[in-house]
Amino acid sequence: MGDVKRELPPVPDRLPVAVVDAHTHLDACGAVTAADVTAMVDRAERAGVARVVTVADDLASARWAAEAAGWDPRVFAAVAIHPTRTKEFGEAEKAEVARLAAGDRVVAVGETGLDYYWDYSPHDAQQEAFRWHIDLAKRLDKPLMIHDREAHDDVLRILAEEGAPNAVIFHCFSGDAEMARKCVDAGYVLSFAGTVTFKNAKGLHEAARLCPAGQYLVETDAPFLTPHPFRGRPNEPFGAAYTVRHLAALRGEAVHEVATAVRTTAERIYRLPSVTPG
Prior knowledge:
Layout (H helix, E strand, L loop, with lengths): L18 E6 L9 H13 L2 E7 L3 H10 L6 E5 L11 H11 L4 E10 L7 H18 L3 E6 L2 H11 L5 E3 L6 H10 L2 E4 L9 H9 L5 E3 L21 H12 L3 H16 L8
Parallel strand pairs: 1-2, 2-3, 3-4, 4-5, 5-6, 6-7, 7-8
């Protein structure tokens, strides 16, 4: 018998309304070729996850994501340099990120921000790169996709100092109700990953309940953060369907209500063409 911990969870039943996986990493999920991408998105679509945004964290990943977004009409990209990789972020790297981010199929600048959990890049280098990415998002008039790990105060401070772009997404939102209120009041969008399904994530549950429709998204961050009850197993974009159902239960709303909110918010924030619900 194989190790079940290494196996994908089953593809769940199709959602009543098609949604968007707002943040995934198809390359880290194992996709290399166009055929790989199509197979992953086909599995996602069987669960009602009709479109995905594949996200870069370094230059090689950014090149791949921008190219992969042209392989399948259901795939879009976001590009930036992850905060943990900003120790060496010079003019050549900035020029290439800016070129890739301007692409028609690149719908956001991200993931960028601050990560004080890992000790891979000095805080000052991270903050300088974050400010540069904020400016890029404003120059391109594209959403800013934020990675915020144990750095809430500095992320909010720098956004206020620089002036936030028109759209700001807190990828894999990790704050509590107080942090969520600050973000909601500022007009930011919170993207909930599989962590919102974890039983011990009480603060995150409170944040998910208070977030109004129009200011939340659902993502997988695949291959990471697989939703309960499959925590620890590999993740793919179809996993967003599990999170949508958990979020509906948390909020005391019908699944179709949450799915509709997720889809319409993603279409507005990423400026995606509208699709027929269902």
